Q: What sequence folds into this?
């Protein structure tokens, strides 16, 4: 199985940057990938970004594409979400998740493995 552990969430002021980390362990899938989602109370989990297992393909949601970047350090088996120019609207619990099919995975139900989440809070 695939195990994921997120870290890096914090309380920051608007305009600040954070880098979230997702450490992967267990088996990998050649056509799979890792996604980042976020969720606030009373809302469904929102897709943020995804990256293929190899790190060669990425996609970032339009809502944050100009501010967020996803990357992977394959040697350390870690996926990162670099978040710049954070705004209060970005406040959420951020999750990383694993999917067996990178190409069609833009929704939470398409991911098979989930981390525990890390809280990001942006104050004004």
A:
């Amino acid at each position: 199985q695939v195990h994921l552990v997120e870290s890096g969430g914090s309380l920051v002021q608007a305009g600040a940057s954070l880098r979230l980390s997702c450490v992967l362990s267990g088996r990998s899938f050649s056509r799979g990938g890792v996604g980042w989602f976020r969720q606030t109370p009373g809302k469904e989990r929102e897709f943020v970004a995804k990256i293929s297992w190899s790190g060669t393909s990425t996609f970032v949601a339009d809502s944050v594409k100009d501010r967020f970047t996803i990357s992977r350090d394959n040697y350390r088996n870690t996926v990162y979400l670099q978040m710049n120019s954070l705004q209060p609207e970005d406040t959420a619990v951020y999750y990383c998740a694993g999917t067996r099919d990178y190409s069609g995975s833009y929704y939470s139900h398409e991911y098979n493995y989930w981390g525990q989440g890390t809280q990001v809070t942006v104050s004004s």
Q: What stands out?
A: The first strand starts at residue 2 and ends at 7. The mean pLDDT is 94. The radius of gyration is 13 Å. The CA atoms of residues 37 and 115 lie 10 Å apart.
